[in-house]
Amino acid sequence: MTGLPDAHDAGAWLHGRSFSKTSPPGSATAVLDGRMRFTGWSPEAEELFGLRADDVLGRSADAVLAAAGTGADAPLAGDRDTTRLLGARVVRRGDGRSLEVMLSLTPLAHGDGAFGWILMAAGAEQAHWEAVGRSVLAGLDRESPVHLVVYDTGARLRWINAAVEKQFGVPLREAAGRFVKDLLPQGRVLGHDDRKVSGVEEIVERVVRTGTPVADVRYRSATRLDPHRERVWSCSYFRLQDEEGRPIGVCEASLDITDRYVARQRLALLSRASGSIGRTLDIQRTAGDLAELVVPDFADAAVVDVFEPVLSGQEPPRGGTRSPLRRAARRPCADASDATASDTLDALRLRCLAEAGPVADPAAGAVAVPLTARGALLGVVALVRSWPRSPFEPEEILLAEELVSRTAVCVDNARRYTREHATALMLQRDLLPRALPEPPGLEIAHRYLPAAGPAGVGGDWYDVIPLSGARVGMVVGDVAGHGMGAAATMGRVRTTVAALAALDLAPDELLARLDDLVARTDTTLPSGATEAEDQALGVTCLYAIYDPVSRHCVMARAGHLPPVLVTPDGHAELVDLPAGPPLGLGGLPFESADIELPEAAMLALYTDGLVESRETDIDRGVRSLCAALSGPGHDPLEKTCDGVIGRLLPQAPEDDAALLLLRVHALAENLVATWDIPLDAGEVARARSLARDRLTAWGVDEAASFVVELVVSELVTNALRYGGAPVTLRLIRERGLIVEVSDGGHTSPHLRRAAMEDEGGRGLFLVAQLTRRWGTRYTPTGKIIWTEVSLTPVPLTEALADGLFAL
Predict the structure, then answer these.
(1) How far apart (Å, rounded) are the C-alpha atoms in residues 81 and 78?
(2) What is the pLDDT of residues 153-167, one digit of tens each?
(3) What is the pTM of this model?
């Protein structure tokens, strides 16, 4: 019995209440000598049996227990070498109530070497639950699939159950006293509560300090038994404390959730892919979206290579392996930066392109997937994993194919957009005037900014059209929609405006005819077509005519924004101009406004892309434009243009934007001569004389002066003969010479060839041969026949060769 407690000391412990603290909770303890007589009786025994120590000490156990029981129980006896479980007995408490107890005997040695016993007694129910508790603890230790770890307050491992030993291949004797990071150097905490933590030690320290449990922390690591495949556990932590509530450690309970975690990760990856890949119609940004999506959750590095023609919007090459690849995106983790440039990866990409299917290299931890859309090979995507992450499994390769397939469709859409955008931009720039004319009385500056967003090129345009009589037509318009259709429609409408302007129509009449043509197009659309298919419907347009002789500007608009007028003192305001309906509605009137512009005033014609965006409403944008144009001074228009664009469009516009600035000047009075001609045939000679004298004053040479006299003679003769009062002759000295004869008639002359025997009919034909241009324009009071005579006139010998003076 060496090493067992002495029976005399055991009795002293019981009487001093010290032994009870070492007894199991809810149990009672007594000490028996070798003759089975009580020598010690604990307070717990008094409470359990209802008998005081004075009533029990010195009496035999059989007498005390049998006298209180049924009398049918076997006498107490025990083996001197082992603890004996006596089982359940029904005894009678001191108050007369029956009590079922569980009894056990443990051998002791007396001081003189005699034999003794410790009797343990507990209520049967309490003993049952204690047995259950012991069974649960044993099950958690040896049988539970839940991983259990106990840490001390310093985050060192003190105990692990069999499940941990089995999966990690680490026995308790090796784990005890060590940190997790020493046993699993590649393990890492994935995060908790949206914050990163450095490791398990930080979590244990927090739980010890706060006492607040932490649940569902994801921990990833390879294990000693499976070093080539990482697993994921969901871990929860709670504090352990003693009877006084002082912390003594932390318990960790965890479950292997690798399969569930991977499945959720794949679903989450696919879900994020639908919202993150292809957000723009830019090939490189789309490739970058894929790389950003998969690194680091799915792979440690990603490389996206695209065939060179695809990047520029061209069709993917046939036999793509011969076409050079260009890097569209590359996103490595720090540990995988070298892997993305390895020869192994290059060989893997070439195999992938040659086989047109996914190719994996488990040893390198890499997989290459072809970037294929609509049956065309666009490039290749390579994904790399570094140790200790496991190589790509077949299910993960299928996931990579799905992600790359979605990316390929977006890349192909971006390629098509790039091609169409470039074509539309080229078409629009070809249709827009490459260089505007520089008519007299006008300074001109202009800017056009195509849309930078996914909407593509729009249909904004502007133009400056020289007209008869030194006048200038100015137009700005906006076609609804974007892309090739808008650009083509813009070219069609712009050409129509130029053709109508050549007829010298007033602004309101020009818009009315243009509206009729657009509306007529609507009625001739093919069967089944809709209005939306003709982008000319809904076009806005503003047309103005400036006369530098009178400084009057007549303008009308079809649903377009009104121009901004800036006076010489720097005050900017919108011109009060009737709006008019957009083109294509048909049958609605347009109104013109006639304003006199001060010398050196500035007009700003623009489209809504300059003043309107998702962040700025149109009224606020117009106010900003007026503010940008306001202020004293006469800066060059080019500088003013740059200032307006920089202030209103500091970034690329969401919609096309056009700006046309014009500073007006009046022709000098000494460059214009006007005479009223009475209705008398004799006034023709006077008209020639007046013209000749003025040409001499202007320094025009005799040859040009002769042509002008001839033109004046013919036009004045026709006006007096076929027109009506008032007849006016006007000469304008502008680059060349402009001759205008107006009368009150509304009949337009027409050109014809006279027969050899005809005595007349050659005058207008002669005028047409000797002048650069000629034509007719109508006024509210009649018409004007105008001609433009070059200062280097056609030699008369050429006129004779044409038979003008045939005998």
Answers:
(1) 9
(2) 999 999 999 999 998
(3) 0.57
